Amino acid sequence: MKPSQKEWISRLVDGLLPVFATLAALLVGAVMLLFLRVNPLQAYAALWEGAFGSSNALAETLVKATPLLLVALGICISFRGDVINIGGEGQMIVGALLAAWLGLTFTDWPGWVMIPAAMLAGFIGGAVWGGIPGFLKAYFNVNEILSTVMMNAIAVQLMNFLLRGPMIDPSQAELASKIPQTARLVEAFRLARLAPTRLHLGALIAVILAVLVYILLWRTTLGYRIRAVGQNPHASRYAGINVKRHIVMALLLSGAFAGLAGAVQVFGVNYRMITDGSASGFTGSAGFNGIVAALFGQLHPIWSIPASVLFGALLVGANSMQRAMQVPSALITALNGLVVVFVVSSEIWRQRRQRRRLASAPETESSPGSGAASPESAEEAV
Amino acid sequence: MADEQSSYENVVEMRGIVKRFPGVLASDHVDFSLRRGEIHALLGENGAGKSTLMNILAGLYRQDSGSISVNGRPVTFSSPRDAIKAGIGMVHQHFMLVPSQTVTENVLLGLDDPRFLMRLSEYDKKVAELGEQFGLRVDPRAKVWQLSVGEQQRVEILKMLYRGAQVLIMDEPTAVLAPQEIEDLFETLRSMTLQGKSIIFISHKLNEVASIADRITVLRRGQMTAGGVSAVGVSTQELARLMVGRAVVFHLDKSPASPGEVVLDVKDVYAENDKGLPALRGLSLNVRKGEIVGVAGVAGNGQRELSQVIGGLRKCAKGEVRLKGELVSNRSALYGIQRGLAYVPEDRTHVGSAPNLSVTDNVIMKKYRQAPISHSGLLDMNQATRFAKGLKEAYDIIVPTVETPVRLLSGGNLQRVILAREISGEPDFMVAVQPTRGLDVGAIEGVHRLLLTQREAGSGVLLISEELDELLWLSDRIYVIYEGRIMGEIQLGGGDASQETVDVIGQMMTGTPLENIRMERDA
Question: Would the CB atoms of B26 and A372 count as touching at under 8 Å?
Fold first, then answer.
C-alpha cells in the first residue's frame, strides 16, 4: 500500500522535527544571550562560523563527531535490546588502554597490521567492560544502569594508575611534572589524516560501521534476536530465544563500539593516551554525549550520523562562540542541555502523532468486543 | 463514618450498573445488593466483570449509568477515599503495603491522625485491640516483609477496619493463600459478620463460595446469570453452569475423528506455579494425531502451568512430557519448537507476540533461523516480507501493511497472526490455551475453523479452555482438570453433548473424580 500525499507530508514533518526542535532551543538560547547583553545573531554567527565556517572548522566538527557516532552506534544496539548502557566512558577508556598498550609494546609491527589489531583491541577492551555488567544483569539481575556507572569509576582509577605508573611516558617520568600520559605512538601507527586538517580515517570507519550496525540490527538473526528480546523478553523466551545470552550480547556489543571510539581517539587524534585525572579528561564526555546523539538519531544507526555531526558542531562552534563573544562557558552547557530537552520532547510528540495516525488508519479495523481482552481480565490475570 | 444506627436491611444497593470499556461491555445492567451481616459471594470466570463491578463500588471506577445507595442513601464516589468514608473498603488481590514499615505504620499510612508526632506504642495498642476483636492475630510491631502472605492479608483487612469499614470487599482473597490459611481467613470472615460487618467475596472457585457464602451472585460476560440466590439451595454443578453458560451461537461441520498414534504423552507430571506452590500433582494425559483433546476446568487449576511445561517454559519436578516419543520436558522452548511443537499461549500480547514489532517480525519469530528467511545468520527481509504477506492473505489478517506493529491489531487479528505463525510451521502437535478469550463471535468462529483444519490435517491439538461450550463443540475427548490432577476423561461422539455429560463434567470440575460419580450412580 502506497502512502497517500497527506501521509507523506506528515512523515516529512516527523523527519524534520528534530531540526525544528533544535531551532526552538536556539531561540530560547537567544533570549538567554539577550539577558547577557550579547547580540544573539552575532553569537550564532560565531557558532556557525566555528563549526562550519572553513574546511578546518568543518574538519574539527567531524573529528568531534567521530567518537560520538561510535558510542552512539553501541547505544543503538543496547537500547534496542532494552538495556541501558551508561558506561560508555569507562568502555572508551578500557578500549583505549588496551589499544595504546598494544601500540606502545609492539612498535616494530607494520602499520597495516597494527592499526586493525589496535582497533580490534579497543573493540575487545570495550566488549569486556560492557560484557561484565551484561553478565551481571542477565544472570544475577544486577541493575545495569548502576553497574555500568560503577564500571566507569573503576576504569578511571585503572587509567590513572596505569598512566601515572606502568604506562607513563618515560620523559614525563623523568620530569617533575608527571603529567599522566603515555609515550607517543610511532608514526606508522597513526590513522591517515586529510592534511592539513585533523580529520582522520576514524570518521570514515565510523560511517562504514554505522551501515554495518544497521545491517546487524535489521538484517541478521542476531540483531533480530536482540531487538525481539528488547521488545518482549517473555515472547522471545516462548519463541525459543536464549534471553539471558542476548542481554549479555547487547551490552557487550554496545561496550565494544565505545571501546573502539577510545582506540580511535588514541590512534587518530592524540597519538597517545592522555588525561587530567578524570574520565572526561580523556573522553571529552563522548561516552555520555554519544547517548544523546543516539537518542537524537532515534536509535537508528544511520540517523545517528547527522545527529553526531550536529552535536560535534555544537561542541566546536560553542567554543568559538565563547571566545568571540566572551560569554560564560556555562551558557554553552545550557545551550547543549536545551537542545537535548527540546529534541527529546519533540520525540515524544512525534510518537504520539504516529500513534494517532496509525490508530486512525482506515484498514486497521477494531470491531467492538475484539479488544485484546477486557480490562478486567488483564487485571485479574495472575 | 458509616452510621450504625441505620436499620436498613440492605447495606449496599447497586441498581442497573453499566460500565463500558473500549470494545467491551464489562458490566451490563447488573443489580447487586448486600445485606447487613452476610457474606455475599460474587462468582464468575476471569473477565466476567466481577472486579469491574466491585471497583465501581470501591470508588476506583465510575459507572456509565446505574445507581448505588449505601444504607438507603444514594451515593456517588469519585475516589476510594469517598467509598471508605461511606464505610466501604476493598482488599485487593495484590497487597498495597510498604514492606519496610511495621504493621501499625502500614495501618496508619495516609491517615490524618496522628498529625505530626508519632507515638507508635499508643497506636500499636489500638491495632492490637482491633486485631483481637476480629481474630486477626498479627504483631503490630512486626515489619511487613517479615510476615507470611496470610498475615499480610490480615494487615490489609485491619487497614480497612481501622478506617471504619462496615463493608469489606475481598478480591479473590484465597488466590494467594495456602489451604490452612484459607481456613483461618474463613473463620475471621465469619467472626466479622457476627459483629455486624458485611462481606463481599469475589471468587471463581466454586467450592470456596459454597462453603463460605450466605448468598451468591453469578456474573457471566458482564451479565448477571444469578442474582443473590441463597447458597443453601444451590448445587456447585448448578453454579458451574451459571458461570460457564451454555448458549449455542453457531455450529461447525465436523468430520468424525480418525485418531492415529499418540503424539503427545504427558506422564505423572508435578510442577509448581510462580509462587512456588504445587500446581500440577501427578497429571497424565495423551493426545493422538488427528484429534482435538480438550482440557476443561475452572481457571487456576493448573491449566497455565500444564501448557508451560509442554511448551518448555516451565520445569517439572517429576514426570515427563514426550512428543512423538521424544522427551521434551525440562529442555528449552527451542527444543520443542524444532521438533514440531506449536504453542498458542494464553497471553497474546505479552507472551504470544512482541507488540512493538511488525507483523513480519512477529510471524518469523519461530522461523527466522531457517532458510529461506535466513542464510548463515543473515536475514533475507525480502523473503520474510513475502512470507508475511502470504500468511496475511491465507489467514485473512486485516492490517494495512505487514510492517504495522502488531500492537495496533484487534484481538481477533492478533490471534490470527499467532495462529498463522504456529500453523505455518506444520506442527505435529499444538497446544492452544484460551484461544478465543476476549474475541467477538466472528473471530471465535475463525479460530475454531483453524483448529479443526489442524485436526483434519492430521495434527494433534490440546485445547485448554475455560469455555465449556467451546470444548464440547471442538473436542473429540475431554479431560477435566482439578487442582493439578485429571479427574476423568470423557469420550465425545459427534453432535451435541447430552445434559448428562455436561453434569458429569461439572461435577468433575468441582473435584469429584469420574469413578466416584460412576460408583454413586451405580449404587
Answer: no
> Is the CB of residue B414 less than 8 Å away from at least one CB of chain A?
yes
Within 140-169 of B, beta carbons closer than 8 Å to A belong to none
d(CA B451, CA B294): 12
**How buried is A65 (Cβ within 10 angstroms: 0-12 exposed, 13-18 middle, 19+ buried)?**
buried
- The closest alpha carbon to B287, from B454, B417, B435, B449, belongs to B454
Contacts of A281 (CB under 8 A, 6+ apart): A274, A275
Distance from C-alpha of B453 to C-alpha of B458, rounded to nearest angstrom: 9
3-state DSSP assignment of residue B434: coil
A234–B46 C-beta distance less than 8 A: no
B212: amino acid identity, one letter: I
Cβ–Cβ pairs < 8 A, chains A and B = 169
Domain span holding position A14: 1-38+327-353
- ipTM (interface predicted TM): 0.77
* pLDDT tens, chain B, 523 aa long: 444 444 567 899 999 999 887 666 888 899 999 999 999 999 887 668 888 899 999 998 889 999 999 998 999 998 888 999 999 999 987 788 888 888 998 888 877 776 666 678 888 898 999 998 888 888 999 888 888 888 899 999 999 999 989 999 998 888 777 667 888 899 999 999 999 899 999 987 777 888 899 999 999 888 888 888 888 888 877 887 787 765 444 556 677 778 889 999 999 999 998 878 899 999 999 999 999 999 998 878 899 999 999 999 999 999 999 999 999 999 999 999 999 999 999 888 889 999 889 999 999 999 898 888 999 889 999 999 999 999 999 988 888 889 988 988 877 789 999 999 999 989 999 999 989 876 766 677 788 989 999 999 999 999 999 878 789 889 999 999 999 999 999 998 766 667 788 888 888 888 889 999 888 888 7
* Chain A residues whose C-beta sits inside 8 Å of any chain B C-beta: 1, 218-224, 227-228, 231-232, 234-242, 358-359, 361, 363-377, 379-382
Pick the CATH number of B10-244 from 3.40.50.300, 3.20.20.30, 1.20.1250.20, 3.30.2350.10: 3.40.50.300
